[in-house]
Amino acid sequence: MNVIAMEHVKKNFGEKEVLKDISFRVREGEVVSIIGPSGSGKSTLLRCATFLERMNGGSLSYLDEEVVMDRDGISVYPGKSVIRKVCNNFGLVFQNFNLFPHYSVLKNVMDAPVNIQKRNKDEVYEEVKLLLEKVGLSDKEKAYPCELSGGQQQRVAIARALAMKPKMLYFDEPTSALDPELTAEILKIMKELAAEKMTMVIVTHEIEFAKAVSDRVIFMDEGVIVEEGAPEMVIDNPCNDRTREFLRKLNY
């Protein structure tokens, strides 16, 4: 089953064409990393997939059900209630954490399951305690974001996404704001999630990590998918000159 499928996606910002006829699918349990230079459209693709941006053209499906339809090259969106329901299928981890600064760690993680999904508060609390243990933050539930390191804040963000019990997780450059030591903390958790067969789409510059954890790697440049395939092909033996040049600039 495809957890997500995007077909012939186009996205413009004014006159600038940021995504140019992109088709993209992720199967259940698959880990897909998206690499490419800044400005290639990677984050915009994720933002379109998660309804943070509206596509100009193309279709979008979750769990093999079409949500955004393509009508003569124009994306047609459903009502807000349908989109809210579809959003329960995924969690999104941003590069800048996006925690509520006035909420404790516990409240940051519990808030959406209790207030959006309307789940039992005591049940959610027990689940969240286990999630905080999973990300190594059992002792921080009463702390506030300003009292945490960047790595700890990102681990809270991951726990918050998992608390919604999503079918898949999106990561948009989850380590770009972190130093190397803190980056290692986050990559370790993501590797554990991959081992548990969590469906994930990861926009990253961490090439070694992408190679180690991904079932498939996509290289994007100038709003198109230039190359995709198994990591040992795209990263170790790229076919396209643009892919080779990108990896060379990263000294890979």
Explain how this protein is built:
- This protein is an alpha/beta fold and 252 residues long.
- It has a single domain, classed as Rossmann fold, CATH 3.40.50.
- The protein is 36% helix and 28% strand.
- It contains nine helices and eleven strands.
- The protein has helices at residues 42-49, 80-86, 105-115, 121-134, 150-163, 180-195, 207-213, 231-234, 241-249, and strands spanning 2-13, 16-27, 31-35, 57-62, 65-71, 74-76, 90-93, 168-172, 199-203, 216-221, 224-229.
- The strands form two sheets. A six-stranded mixed β-sheet has the order 7-8-9-3-10-11, sandwiched between helices.
- The two termini are 34 Å apart.
- 38% of the residues are buried.
- Report the major sheet: 6 strands, mixed
Q: Structural class given helices, strands, pairing? A: alpha/beta
The CATH topology is Rossmann fold
CATH class: Alpha Beta
How many domain modules? 1
Morphology: globular
Count of helical stretches: 9
Tell me, rounded to a whole number, the average pLDDT: 94
**DSSP strand count:** 11
